[in-house]
Specification:
- Helices cover 47% and strands 13% of the residues.
- It is extended.
- The chain has 19 helices and 16 strands.
- Strand 1, helix 3 and strand 2 form a beta-alpha-beta unit.
- The protein folds into four domains: 117 residues, Response regulator (Rossmann fold), CATH 3.40.50; 169 residues, 3-Layer(aba) Sandwich (Rossmann fold); 76 residues, Helicase, Ruva Protein, domain 3; 44 residues, Arc Repressor Mutant, subunit A (Orthogonal Bundle).
- It is an alpha/beta fold and 438 residues long.
């Protein structure tokens, strides 16, 4: 009866007399939906459901029974069924369940397509962005990844400097060699030289054996010197020599060793100011800054917040046993209205915390930190240091901020936002596209 009814309504329907036969058919053919009774000979419905899950059969399974209870339905749903229908049922009831399942599959395919598009269009390695300035940085990474040139990455704490360093390494010819990272500010000054250059036995009290330093460990690959601005002045001289000569001398050793290492350094300090004030060697600065990359703070690329949030929801949702978790519209609005002094790292921590505190699959404002729920608004900032005195860039930042505020005030209504901004609707659409704020 079901087969004939479904064929009448345009479905390509086949029937199986028991669960074992159905399992064989599902392995041979790709079905979109499976309507499965619970009481069947040979292999019952629950057994079929489990076997289908183990076999990786991707069809949406809808269970049916005249003997079911609420507990039975819940048990089937826990085992992976999409829905449960009690018999006797009307034809329209089955058709409605199938239509709902079709819509669910359509949404899953659309989400899969969007994720693929994000991976293809808006990401570079582990870096996710649709901001025009970040897209320019993607191009810089592509151009520098295959050369040995020293790279200096500048940016506030939490902007993703190590991610850029790893992207340069992973996309270049050194990808199969080591990537070694060290935080120059996290190691005591008296140990940093030995950590970087190694030592020989007896060089100092605790030197019980010869030990290679990080430069030797990174031979053929990349050494990432994070927080290079924290490096003590005496070591700056030795680092300069390594960069110039391509060789290191272990502490206590008589002869140097040749190393082939590409050095990428990063700092949140204003190194030019450090040079001017005598805290950082000028010759080392020029040696490190052959190819400079400056990362914008998150407050200057707010259009990336939804994209980054979706990325972190997928990453941490899977790790925390809550796949498919999402943000409520109210929570996203609060994230878009926050200043993010901790940048992308702060956003990731906020999303991870929200997933842990949320009771279900939706992160609501209650799961966000107090500072974000309290509406920590950022102020429009036109000046970001001596290196950004461009009137054109200042005008762009001001336009972005005013457009964001107008959209916030109108709940995203572009027509009303254009009216507040006193520009035409077409002009607003053009600016949204230009600034990557669609």
């Amino acid at each position: 009866m079901l087969r004939e009814m479904l064929r009448k309504h345009g479905y390509d329907a086949q029937a199986a007399e028991d669960g074992e036969r159905a399992l064989a058919m599902a392995r041979e053919h790709s079905f979109d939906f499976i309507l499965c009774d619970i009481r069947m000979p040979v292999l019952d419905g629950v057994g079929f459901l489990r076997a289908a899950q183990e076999a990786g059969i991707g069809a949406t399974i809808i269970m049916m029974s005249a003997y079911g209870t609420i507990d039975t339905a819940l048990h089937c749903m826990k085992e992976g069924a999409y829905d449960y229908v009690s018999k006797p049922f009307k034809h329209d009831e089955i058709l409605l369940v199938l239509k709902k399942a079709e819509e669910r599959e359509r949404l899953k395919m659309e989400n899969r397509r969007l994720r693929e598009a994000v991976g293809r269009e808006y990401s570079f390695g582990a870096i996710v962005s649709r901001n025009p300035r970040m897209r320019e940085i993607f191009e810089l990474i592509r151009k520098v990844c295959d050369v040995r040139t020293s790279v200096l990455i500048l940016g506030e704490s939490g902007t993703g400097k190590e991610l850029v360093a790893r992207a340069i390494h992973q996309n270049g010819s050194r990808r199969d060699a080591p990537f070694v990272a060290v935080n120059c500010g996290a190691i005591p000054e008296n140990l940093l030289e030995s950590e970087l250059f190694g030592h020989v036995r007896g060089a100092f009290t605790d030197a019980a054996a010869d030990r290679a330093g990080l430069f030797e460990e990174a031979h053929g690959g990349t050494l990432f010197l994070d927080e290079i601005g924290e490096m003590p002045h005496p070591l700056q001289v030795k680092l300069l020599r390594v960069l110039q000569e391509g060789e290191v001398r272990r502490v206590g050793a008589q002869r140097p060793r040749k190393v082939d290492v590409r050095v990428i350094s990063a700092t949140s300090r204003h190194l030019e100011r450090e040079v001017a004030e005598g805290r950082f060697r000028e010759d080392l600065f020029f040696r490190l800054n052959v190819f400079g990359i400056t990362l914008p703070p998150l407050r200057e690329r707010l259009e990336d917040v939804p994209l980054l949030a979706a990325h972190f929801l997928e990453k941490h949702g899977a790790a925390l046993g809550k796949p498919g978790v999402r943000l409520s519209p109210e929570a996203l609005r609060l994230l878009m209205g926050y200043g993010w002094p901790g940048n992308v790292r702060e956003l990731e921590n906020c999303i991870e915390r929200g997933i842990i505190l949320s009771d279900g699959k939706v992160v609501t404002p209650d799961a966000l930190p107090d500072g974000i729920r309290g509406g920590g608004q950022r102020e429009t900032t036109l000046y970001h240091g001596d290196d950004q005195l461009s009137i054109k860039k200042a005008e762009e930042r001001l336009e972005r901020e005013f457009i964001r505020r107008a959209l916030d005030k109108t709940g995203g209504n572009r027509t009303h936002a254009a009216r507040l901004l006193e520009i035409s609707h077409r002009a607003l659409l053009y600016k949204l596209k230009e600034y990557g704020m669609e």
